[in-house]
Every structure is written in structure tokens, then in C-alpha cells.
Amino acid sequence: MRFKGTLSSVLLFGLLNPVVSNPQLSGNGFVESRPSSTQNVTYIPNTYIVELEHTPSTKAASLFSQRLGGRVKYHVRKEFNNAKFFYGLSLTVTDGTSQKSDLLEISGVKNVWPVRLVPRPEAFVAAMPNLPSNNILPHIKGNSDVNRPLKMAGVDKLHEKGIKGKGVKIGIIDTGVDYLHPSLGGGFGPGYKISFGYDLVGDDYTGTNTPVPDDDPLVTCAIGGHGTHVAGIIGMTDAQNQGFGLVGVAPEATIGMYRVFGCSENSGDDVIMAAMQQAAEDGVDLITMSLGSLSYWEQASPYVSLAESIVESGVAIIAALGNDGDLGPYAVSAPGLAPEVLAVGSVENEVYPTVYKAQNNIGGSLEYISVFPFIADKPLTVFQAGSGLDFPVTELQAGGCDTRVWTAAQKAITDGANTAVLIYLTKSCSLSAYSPELSALNVTTVIYYTDDPDIPVLLPEPDTVGQFTVLFLSYEQSQQIVSEIEKLATGKEYTLLFNSSTIQDSLNSAGHAIDYFSSIGPTVEMTLKPQLSSPGGNILSTYPRSAGGYAVLSGTSMAAPFTAGVYALVKSQRPDLSIAETISFLQSTATPMKALDMDIVSSVTQQGSGLINAYAAVAADSQISPSQLSLLDSPKPAKQTITIKNTSKKLKTYSISHSGASYIRTFNNFTAGSDQVFVKFTNVHEAKYATAKFSKSKLSLQPGKSAKIEVQFTAPDEPQPYSEPIYSGHIRIATDSSSYVVPYLGVPYSRSDTEYIARNTTAWVGNDRPYVGSDSTSPGVVNIGNYSILGSDGSVPDDINVPIVNFIIVQPSNLIRLEIVPVNTTFVPTYYGFDPSVKFDVADVDLPLQEGFLGVPNYGIMAQWGIGHIPPGISVASLLGWPYPNTVTGFILLYPFLMHENGTGFDLTSGAFRPLLRVLRYGANGTSADDYESWLGPIMNVKTS
């Protein structure tokens, strides 16, 4: 069993973090070139969620114990005994002997998922209060349009009519809530705004230790403020002489909080599932969840089954899709990826809601962004990071990431307490990187500036501000201060006097567009995500009183509760609608948005149907179904049918048309000839559209009548499927008084009919792939290569020459195998990586030949990556993780520890073999050799110490 303790999927991202980590494995590794998420996806060791066939009158844990018969030692984490939702348990195997495959073999087990640590929800960016921690809330006066997000979505018009969500019960699953905040009602229980809920974990829960639940979801720790912010977006109401004058989307809804995070670290899938089930059992109308972990594939998620059951029971689920927009399409989070969950994208606020003025010493003023005003007794001298250097200043120096910046600052700053340091806002380093230097200078005030008008101000995470006062400048104000400092006469200082507490707003140049951080759908299985979008960027809401009471946060975490509030408004006026009908009204009345600064509609993969419109959803007098279309992967998708129903009291005439949206590629560099193919998703919008032919383009309906129209789409031609393009658009249905949309998306080719293993790649990666190479044989050998690797004891040979099998998988596959087979194997692959007519007289490795997989004898497996429904004959214990197209770009054979088909490890001996790469085609069941594309590589003659 050496392999399980020593071999892992070591994903190499340069400076980025791994997407997958398995604490049981370490050693050899896949090479990974796709940028990672802002979060890691980590499994809790030896811990699983087990779904069971329901047995009436028997608790799940008892049933499992009976079936197991003492064969495995384990302890139960959670029980799920309500078969209406989910019947099973979560458990930790305490002796480490059992794997997922063993559990699946137990009678009555339907499915098994490893339990993942779900990262605590944090806003993508966060502006924290610059006030000392206390429970006294301020009263901020001025003329800021702090409730602008309500206007963006038509919520203000419903509030004017007295529609505020009364009678609707919303369950929030999050970090807990400071319900003592006056704007959230000041109490907990019947009669209060936050009237029900539960703490499933306690303050000290980290995701891996034992939860300590209680019946009070109160949280006062600042790091638990996310749930308080979410609750405020739905239900806050500032008192007349307190706060900012904020109003939530549905301030008369009844709110419950289910706390699933402690005051630090993470939670587990099973805890979150338990909260979902408890909320449903408590009779909520909808659940909103601003949390999740990166998943890509629906089949990888235990939430799919539970969400389906909860929605079938009449409880809607709304979830944030995630903040991984920089990863490109398919990088969606669970539970938002579940088909029955309404997943939400984020739209940037049209204004920065908390802006204040400082007076400069050249007769003007400067506007800065901060939750609360900053007041100083005397003017502060502004020192710009990078000043005083005798070489050209780059982003590195302007952002404070170069120690020479602070050496120069020591010479220039004589009174740190009365100095503000102006720093360029960059991802290269953060405040924590240079906070010691600031402290050494006695500087406590930092002003951040930016130079990109299309990206909203990036603000630091809540726990990075520390003892500093941190202020931010919009693009326009950044340009102003930099210009003014540049024009100063030699020796003249630039100062700012902070003496005004009057709030105002300023236009956000990135406003009313999809936030660049908002995750991009669909799921790998092509479920349309997000379904719609809501305001989520730069949202001002409540925060724990101990942390100032208010914060500006950004993320799909903010867009999800906004959507939940709108759902409550619609449901309060249309209580008899089903969940699907309510969602249909929300989607069909949304407003498609254009890409920022472009005359092209943003891809449906980014915005869904568009920006939510609460007023239009309530006022709608026509019903459209289905509310979205997934055209799957085909150049000519199946004909689609849309039903239009006139729910008004008068005759209506409908005009039907088609509007294409941006065509996007997961990897644009495939078409650019760049050798940086997988470094980063590039959000390029192409005006490349499908065509749509309608059976009718106009029709009239009497009140209460319905009609069907058929739509035949034809996908745009695509000669480069390697770039993984997605086309999309909207069907538009208009009357004389209103308009409706049905979003659609598709892949313009058949995944199963295209190539999976990229070849002839010289034009775009600089060499041909696949190949086997090393430092001394790059870019690869043709027929045979000689290598030397570490010994089983870790010894390093003098002639070490580690081989790398280089390949690129360019389509979704739920099983990738890299086997070692005899030099003279009779297997005929899809592609040869050598000249099969050339024969070599070399000694095979001295290992017993195994039966192998699907009739191909092998010595063992270098690595295997898979997910979900694995074909028979594959040991789940041997899987390193799950594959996503283009992520795996090679395998490094560093140690001699490999694996047999049954999951047991063995030591590789010196000798020759060939690598065999097999990739399961999308949609195939994997039981036939024809289901795989394959590549047989050159001879690898490996010496082990």
C-alpha cells in the first residue's frame, strides 16, 4: 500500500494554488497549466457522504451498520433520515482501510461522495469600516444614492406600491447573523425580522473538528460578518436617524439563518446538506446560499440529488455561482451548479455608494471611497510609492512590492503619523506584504489608486486591513491625484485634509455590467448557468456591530440574496405559482446586458437571461416556458419548442425574434499562436452567432390561451474545437406593452466526434504533442528515450534524467488513464507517438503483466484521473481527482511508486515500457475500447536507483 501514502496529483500552476489536493498522496504528479481558483478544493481524509436505498422505519446509520457487518471501522458525522429529501449518512473511516469503491460495494448503497471542505464564503472584494470596533452605529448624512441597486432591478417601484415580501419565509445558509443589529430587527425569535434558524456548528468549528450546535445563529465575530451582510441585502431597514438610510430587497419577509461556519476556516459538504434539509423541514419558501466550492461537473456533487428533492417538495433554492470568472467557462461552484438550483451572476453597482471628499493644498478636492468618512486633525502629506527611485517605476514598485520602495520611503517620510502612502492596487502583493514597513514608518493611512477604467475598485479582504485606515480611489480620481502630484514643483508636497463626514456617491465606470469576477457557466454537462444576474458588485449592507455595523462587499454572494429577495416579492404577489413558473417569470422578464464598453450582448454563459427586473416579473401578463434552452453539443441542435401563454385579460399579439450574444472561447490563445495557451482565460467577445428559424414569427392569443412555436437553431461553423467555444443568445418575445426573453447556449460541434488528445500543436505551444521528454531530451524523443529517476528510498542518482509525458486533453472527459504497457504490446491506438515499423531490442521491466483494462494487459498505472460514474473494472481508490479539459498537460515520473488496477501500489523496476494514454469520450459509458481515444508513446527505458 506504499502508493497511497506516497503518490499524488501534484498540480503545478507556477505561482498559483492547486485546484485539487489529496492529503493521502504525494510524489509523482500531473503537470497543470490552467490557472487555479481563488479557493482550493480539498477533501476531508477518509470521509464520505453515503446515499442509501430507503428502508422504512430504520435510521440510516443503523441500516448501514447492519449492512456493513463490522467490516470497516468508522464513526458517523451526520445522519439524513428524512427520505423525502435524502436518506443516508456521512462518516469517517477511522482505520483508513476503506475507500469509496469499497463503500459502493455494500448492499443498499446508491452513491458515495468524498466530503469536501467548503471554503468559508468571502466577498471577492471588501471595503471594511475605518471605525474602531464598537456597538454604536453611526448616522451618515449626505446625498448618496445608497439604494441604487434597488432601482437597477425595479425593486423601488414595488416598494412604492407596498410590495415588500410580506408572508414569505426565507432560509439563509451562511456564517450566522448579528440579529442584534437594529437594522435587522434587534432580536431573534417570533415577531422579529430574524425569527428562526439554527447554529449547526458553533464558534470553534473549522470544518474538520466536531461541531457544537445550538439553537441560536447569533454571530458577533467580525470574520462571521458575511451572513449579516447577506441578511441585510434581503431584509435590512435603517432607522431614520441611524446608518445610511438603507432598505433591503424584501424588508417584510420572514428570515431564518442556518449557521454552517464557525469564526474561522471552513465547513463540510455534509454540514451544509444538513442545513438545507433542516431549512426545508422548517417550512421555508426558499433557501438562499452564498457559498460553494468549485466543481465543474454536476456528477461530482452530492448537492444535485438533495436539491432536486427539496425543490420537488416546493422549496426553491437560490445560490451564488461563484467568483471564478478568471477561470473561464465551466468553472462553476456547487451547490449552484445543480440543475434545480437558480444560480446567480453578479452585476456591478452603477455607483460607488460611500464616497467622501478631502481637500488638497492646491485649491481643489479629491473624492475617496470608504465605508465611513475618515477624519484627521491636520493635513496628511501624500507619499507616492515608487517616489525617490533612480530607475523607471513599474507596477511592482508602484504597488509596494519592491523592498527598494520602502528604503526610499524611509528617507522621504519623517512624520509617518501625518503621512498617507499612495499605493497602486495590484494583485502582485497585498497590504499584509508591506504592513511591517508601514508600521516601521509609523504610517497608518494608505490610499489605493487604479489605472483600469473597466475594472471596479478592488478592495482588500476583511482580515487584511488590520490597524490601518485604508481608502480607495476610483479610476477618475486616481487619474486626478497622479496628475496633480506629477505637476508639483520640485520640493513641493501634496497634502490632503480629511475633515468632511458628508457622504455622496460617484458613478462607477464599470457599473451596470457583468462583474469580471462572476463565474462563467455552463456546467460541463451543459446545464445553463447562471440563469440570471443581480446586483452584486460594491453592495453596501449590514455587518456585525463589533466591526462597525456596515460594509461594502462584492461577489455573487451579494447577488444571490438580492435574487432571493426579488423571488420573495414575486411570490408574495403570485403565491400560487410553482417554483418553475416563478423562476420563468424572473428569467423571461430579465434584461440582457451588453459587454462593458462594447456594442455586443454579453454571453449567456456570463449573464444568463440578464439583469433581474422585479417590477417586470410582478407585472408580467404572459408566461413563457421553458425559461431557458440548452442546445448541448451539436452543430445542428434538436428542434426546440417554446410555449407562450397569455395570462392577461385582453387579446395580445406577439412578435418572435432572435438576438445573438457574445461568442466566447475557453482558450483564446489557441487561435493566436501563443505558447501561453492555458495561462489565463481571456474574456474576448466575438460577434459570431447561431441562426434561428421559427415556425411562426408572429401570433395572437386570446386571454388564457397558449400557443407553441418551434425553433430550429444552426450553430456557427467552428474549425477550432480545441478552443472550446460556446455560442449563445436570446429568443425575444415582444408585445405592445412588454418584452420577454428565453436564453440559450450550446457548443457548436459534437464533443464525442472531435479529438480529445491534442496533436500537431507546434503552431500554438511551440512543439508537437503528445511526447515524452526531459530536460535533456526536450522537445521529446521519437522512438526511445533513456531516463533515470529517484530510488524508492528517495536517493538521487548522479545521472538523474526525469521523464515527463506531455499531453493536452482538449475536451471534457470523466476518465483519463496513463498506463505502462509492454514495449511490444499488440494494442492498436488511435495515434502512435513513434514509428511502429521500427523495432528495438530492449529489456522490458521485470514486473508481472496484469490483466489490465478492457483487454489491454499492462504493468500498472502511472496515474488515473476520474469522476462520477466510473466504468466497471476501475478502482475508485486509484483515482487522483477529477479531470477537466485542458487542465492536465503532462505527468512527471519522479519516484518509482506506481499503482495496479485494484488500487494497490508497487515499485517500478528498471527496464523499458511504453506509456499508453486513454481518454474517455464525453457521453460514453466506458465499457468498450471504442469509447476511448488513445495514444501509445515511445519506449521509456527507465533506470531506478
TrEMBL record:
Annotated transmembrane regions: none
Record's signal peptide: 1-21
Domain of life: Eukaryota
Gene3D superfamilies: Peptidase S8/S53 domain (3.40.50.200)
Gene Ontology BP annotations: proteolysis
Keywords, ordered alphabetically: Hydrolase, Protease, Serine protease, Signal
Any single Pfam family the record assigns to this protein: Peptidase_S8
Domain C5a peptidase/Subtilisin-like protease SBT2-like Fn3-like: 637-749
Name of this chain's protein: Minor extracellular protease vpr
Source organism: Trichoderma lentiforme
